[in-house]
Amino acid sequence: HRRMWAYIVAFTVLPHVGGLIGWFLNCKDTPMWYERLKKPSWCPSRKIFPVAWTVLYTGMGYASYLIWNDLGGCNSKAIIPLGLYGAQLALNWAWPPFFFGIHNLKMALIDILCLDGLVIGTMCSWYRINKAATLLMVPYLGWLAMATCLTIRIWKDNPEPKPGKTE
């Protein structure tokens, strides 16, 4: 019973690790740079993002535990469902360094578009295994839809300076 709780906690905490590392690495320069960007009126307040990501990472982490548990751990049946989950998590963790770290809006856009596809693929692969786990990913997919639209809009509204030109 104690071992089961250790797995639940580990799976649930794992997504937060990359989020916290990304925040820690990018928190110093982010506020000034981000505030200068042209953003749409529907852009959420910066204060909402940590709350949203805490809830979303917790849900997706617990969902991944449910899948892992239902498949009997890491085995051949788990390769695709957990592999897709791991790949989407890696892209999720890569977005902040692209966007906030190196201010590469185009790479952030490419990353989040690929992330959207991987999350949909993950959910499709999970549906037959555990519908509750799939449903736990729905808020994440909804938030990603908004974040994708926001990334597209910020990319379009904040063109990169042409080489040789200064602002």
Automatic annotation (TrEMBL):
In its UniProt entry, the species of origin is given as Nothocercus nigrocapillus
Print the keywords alphabetically.
Membrane, Transmembrane, Transmembrane helix
Q: How does it sit in the membrane?
A: Multi-pass membrane protein
Q: Which InterPro entries match?
A: TspO/MBR-related_sf, TspO_MBR
The residues that cross the membrane are 6-27, 48-67, 79-95, 135-155
Task: Answer yes or no on keyword Cell wall biogenesis/degradation.
Answer: no
What subcellular locations does the record give?
Answer: Membrane
In which domain of life is the source organism classified? Eukaryota
List cellular component terms (GO): mitochondrial outer membrane
Signal peptide position in this chain?
A: none
Q: Which family does it belong to?
A: Belongs to the TspO/BZRP family.
One Pfam family, short name = TspO_MBR
Protein name as annotated:
TSPO protein
